[in-house]
Amino acid sequence: MYWHICNSDRVLVLDPATLQFSYLPAPEGLPGDFCKYRVGETPDGRMCIVTAEDQVMRLWVRGETRSSDDGWALEKEVDLHKVYDTVPGLPGDMISRVQSIYVTDLDAGQKWRLFIQMLGYGRYSFDLKTSKLERLPMKDGKEYGHPVFAYFLAWPPTFLSADY
C-alpha cells in the first residue's frame, strides 16, 4: 500500500506481508516546496506519481532508466494552461489557478484519468490520453473522487518482473 504524504518528498509504504512501514523517495523533480502529488498505476501496470503544479501535469513512472531519478522517470508532461483556458468560469490569472488547483486522485479503474480539485470551482476529470478536462457532476452533495484512499499496487508489480 502506498500513500502520499502531504508536503513531503517521500511516499509512505506498508508491506502487507510483514506489516512494516517504510519510505520511498518521491522524484526529486517534484515542483515546489509543498508539492501535491498522488500515487497510482499506469494502464500497463507500472507504479506512478502524478502532479498538476504550476499549470503543468507531470507523470513519473517507477523503473530504472539512464535518466531515472531515485528509480523514477518522467514519462509525460502536459502544459495545462491552454486546457484550463477551455473551461468556462475558471480563473484566468496564474496566481489564482496555482492557489486553487491540485490533483486529488488517479482513477484506479480506468487508470488513464486523474481527478483535479479546483477550490471554489468544482472537481474535474483529466484524461491523460486526450488531455480533455471535464467537470464531474455532484450527486446528493457528495463530490466524485473524494476522499482519497491509499493506493494498492497490483501484484506482482511490473518493475519486479524478470523482463522489465
Describe this structure in words.
By secondary structure, the protein is mainly beta. It has helices at 81-85, 94-100, and strands at residues 2-4, 10-15, 20-25, 37-41, 47-53, 56-62, 72-79, 101-106, 113-118, 122-127, 133-135, 138-139, 142-143. The strands form four sheets. It has a four-stranded antiparallel β-sheet. It has a four-stranded antiparallel β-sheet with strand order 8-9-10-11. Strand 5 (47-53) and strand 6 form a beta hairpin.
Which structural class do the helices and strands define? mainly beta
Q: Approximately how much beta-strand content do the residues carry? A: 35-45%
Strands ordered across the widest β-sheet: 4-5-6-7
Write down the Rg.
16 Å
Poorly predicted residue ranges: none
Q: What's the mean pLDDT score?
A: 77
Main β-sheet description: 4 strands, antiparallel
Order of helices and strands: EEEEEEEHHEEEEEE
So how many helices? 2
Amino-to-carboxy terminus distance? 21 Å
Inertia-based shape? globular
Which range best describes the helical content: under 10%, 10-25%, 25-40%, 40-55%, 55-70% or over 70%? under 10%
Instruction: Please count the beta strands (DSSP E, at least 2 residues each).
Output: 13
